[in-house]
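Morning. Coffee machine broken again, so started the prediction first thing and wrote up yesterday's gels while waiting. Chain of 226 residues, entered below exactly as on the submission form.
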Amino acid sequence: MTGLELSERVIERAGDDPALLPSQQYYKPQEALACINQAQRLFVLISLCLETTANMQLTGDPFYRALTFFPDWIVPLRFRLPGGAKLKPSRLRDLAALDTQWTNRAGTPIRYTHSGFDLLGFYKQDSSIVTVTYARSPAELIFTAEPEIPEEYQPALIEGAIPIMRAKEGQQEWQKTLPMWGRFMESARQCAEAVRARNLEQGLDRIPVEIRRFDMSAVLKKKASK
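Came back before lunch.
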């Protein structure tokens, strides 16, 4: 489905008529599309279902910001040297325990560390070109394009967009959409489990978060108490 088709379905299921002129609609097509984009970004963040591989030029420094190289960055999945050797993922404290001078150690990189959202560190440091496979965010969906997530999960974007769009109506109306939100999260969970199995099989360094045991009721209770 294209962004336009998804927007029309979101507007229709929210109780409006997509055939009306935008000036006559309570929910505007652009508003629906924006909510679909929010739902797709969340879906990808949960499932890590989109990935890409690219080269990264190191300059001999120990630290880099991934977003300066890759604007669609989410998390690293694997680093390799030109010959194919894989860099071992490590925590900052692991590197400090391994070598107290690790930030000044010249040589071909053998380990990397990832902290926060996009801070990358390499041990050792030189001007190598490394190949990184990383989970990426989706491109902004427009009316004439299709979502980037797998086709079988695209209808879930409707379920996710409606609660986001109807939040402006207040808590009572928003709570009516919670079953839709539950179905959206269930689709994201199913996709994440498929990606998790694939990443484990391929030996990638990062797998999607586990949301099977996530207690959404605790979040909703906290929201309702405000």
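Residues 178-202 form the longest helix (25 residues). Going to sketch it on the whiteboard this afternoon.
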